[in-house]
Each structure stands twice: as structure tokens, then as C-alpha cells.
Amino acid sequence: MAEATPQTEQPELHRAIGPKLLLFFVVGDILGTGIYALTGNVAGKIGGALWLPFLLAFVVAFLTAFSYLELVGKYPRAAGAALYTNKAFGIHFLTFMVAFAVMCSGITSASSAALAFGRTYLRQLLVEFFDVALSPESLAITGIAIVFIAALAIINFRGVSESVKANVVLTCIELSGLVIIILIGAWAVINGDGDPGRLTDIHVPSGSNVVLAVTSATALAFFAMVGFEDSVNMAEECRNPVKIFPRAMLWGMGIAALIYVLVAITSSLLIPSDELAKAGSSALLKVVTVGAPGFPLWIFALIGLLAVINSALINMLMASRLLYGMANEKIIPKFFGAVHPFRRTPWISIVFTTGVAVILVSTADIGKLGGTTSLLLLIVFTIVNVACLVLRREPSEHKHFRAPTWAPVLGAITCAYLAIPWTSGRPADDYKIAGWLLLAGLVLWGINRVLHGKVETHPEKLGK
Fold this sequence. Notes:
Elements: H1 19-30, H2 33-46, H3 51-74, H4 81-89, H5 92-130, H6 139-158, H7 164-190, H8 210-221, H9 241-270, H10 273-279, H11 283-291, H12 297-328, H13 347-363, H14 366-390, H15 406-419, H16 421-424, H17 428-452
Helix pairs in contact: 1-7, 1-9, 2-8, 2-10, 3-8, 3-9, 3-14, 3-15, 4-5, 4-14, 5-6, 5-12, 5-13, 5-14, 5-17, 6-12, 6-13, 7-9, 7-11, 7-12, 12-13, 14-15, 14-17
């Protein structure tokens, strides 16, 4: 007589994602707010050599991707950095702080997208269709960004079942906007327009040096390359993840990096860096205006709007789910794990993450929020790279991708280098915002420790 299957056993997730869908997921997760909103800010730090920090950011992310590929092959579960940290070091507090930092990076990323939504793309559409010109810093625009965050909360509260196929459609929309920029650049070169001499011009601020200028710009541009790490959370829904992940992730990152470098080259060819910096989050709109005066600007504004909406929604969903998972695992007060009786969504976590996002939107600009996002993730990536090396002592029961040793070593060094204040040239505000967010996590951890004492951590369940 066969043994009965225990009723408490959870069924496996449906493995519906093949290599092509995974490739689109990686590309779609990387493309978005970073390039659509921060091109002007990066130009203000580096000058005409705008392509350089995006290329260097890709190299740093590429090194870290090797560590993620080894770890997701060895532990093909939907948990990511928290799981790897816990397995490598077994320190409850460190595992929690890594998970909380990832959650905070989602909130800061979504907040920067909200500002891009209000101050750039919706504002441009208001000009195009209603001839209403609002100042980017006006209370009305800030109010629109806050309403946008609230709208995301409502969608999140109602319950969103994310489809990877829908991600393909949104990725194509995001990609189309960047292809428009690249084609404009190609047309300018064919017609002899633009100034190629700008491409080697590096702006060095007073009291700084070339290395610090490049590092500072790269630290901010890194925000545009994040997102690839989210794909590891799809491991349990991929067909043969050990086999398809390496090619999909590395090709996806390469495609995104190539697009970014071409967009940066086009921007510098057509517009001086000081004008790009002055345009800020509207830099790509300015590129379209200058390079293709007859192109309907509202089309690009609409594409940019959809790009930042997609980025913001994905990040707020991730943040609220991760907070809910931490409460469910009893590593923060269980109050945050409350599920609405009718919508079946984690409403307390949604309210909390939305409240934090509203505060950030009301008090910070896009550059600071983008810089804080990259700072938080650079810290997490440093730990993941070290964890990759530590976990090589643990044998695996199956064959999996193994990164060349130099990749996680260089990945840890470069990520730490871009995160340290005296080498990265980061503004102090990045550290202040990150510090306040992590302090909030420390308070929640402390309250929970007083109420419940030490609890066992199961990071593989945090995102469920």
C-alpha cells in the first residue's frame, strides 16, 4: 500500500517560464525609471562622457550577476539575497537587515518613479494636450506624485496577479521609447549633426579629480542596471532554472547595457552636458525635441509614463510582499502580516510601504532617491558576492553554474567601492535617507525581539 501524501505539503509552483520569457523578464526588470529619469542627473556628474558610467555600472552588475547565477543554480528557490545571506552566515540580524534593505530599495525606486511620473512625463502630457505648464517643484506636481503612490496602493490592495506575458508587452513599450532615442541618434550621425568631441569630455568638479567624478557618476548610473537580481525570485517558476538562468540573465543584462550606452551616446552627441543636467529627469524629452523636432513629443511622454508606472508597481508589490513575509516569519511585529478578509491582500504592509513612499516623495528629489536605491543594493550585492565565496564550502547534490572565482571577488570589491562614501563621491543625502530607512527596520526588529525573543529564520518564505 502506497504512503498517503501529507495534507500539509505545499504544491510546487507552476513552472511556466521558458528561456525566452525569462530573457524578456530580465530585460524588462532592468529597463525603466533609471534611464528614463536619471540621464540628466548622471550627465551633471560626468559631463559629455555620459556613456562611461553606464558601461562601468554594467561591468559591476555583470560581476555580481555571476554570484547570483551560481547561488540560484545551487539553491533554486524564490528568496534571493536573504536566503543566500542566511545560508552563508547564519546570523539572524544580518539576514533581516539584508531583507529589509531590499524592501527599502523597492520603496525608494518606486518613489523616484512617482516623481518621474509627476514632474516629467505627466507634466509633459498636460502641456501637450491642455497647454497647462506646471513647475516641476510645484505643490501640484508633488501632489500628483503622492496621488500616484496612493493609486498604486489601491491596485496593490485589490490584488495583482502578475503575468510574465504582460511583462513582455510592457517591456516592448519601454524598449520602443529607447529605440526611438537611438534611431534619432543614428539619423543625427548620418546627417552630420551632433558633436562627437563631447563623448570624451569628463567634467571634474572643483576640488575633485577624474577618478572621483567617474565613480560618483557610476554610483548613480548603477540605479539603471538594478533589477536583474529580481529574476532569481522566479526560479521556482522556471523550467530547468539551472540550465536557462545563466544565458537569460547574462544576455538580458548585455542587451540592456547596450541600449543604455547607445542612448547615452545619442544624448551627448545632440545636447551639451550642462543642458542635459539642467533638464534633469526631462533629459530624454529634450533629446527628442532637439534631434527630431517633428516627432510628436506626446508619444514619447506616454511611453515614458508607462515605463515608470511599470517600474513603480513592480517595486511596491515587491516591497509590501517582502514586509508581509517578514511579519509572517515573525521577524518583525506580526501586526504587519494582517491580511484583509475580503481582498486577501496584506493591507497593513501596503499601508506602511505606501506611507514611507509618500514621505520620500514629499521630501526628496529623483537624484537622491535613485542614489539611495543604488546604495542599498550595492551593500546587499557586496554581501551576496561574499556569500557566494563562503557557500562554496557547502556541497551541492546537483550540478549547477559555477562562477569563476575572480567574479565574486571583484564583484564584492567594486560594489563596496561604489558604496563607501570616501571613494564613491556620493552626496551625504544618500546615506541619510538609507540610514533613516534602515533605522526604522532596526526599531521594528528590536520591538519584535522584545515581544517574541529570538525566532528561527526561514528566508525562503519571505516573499510568499
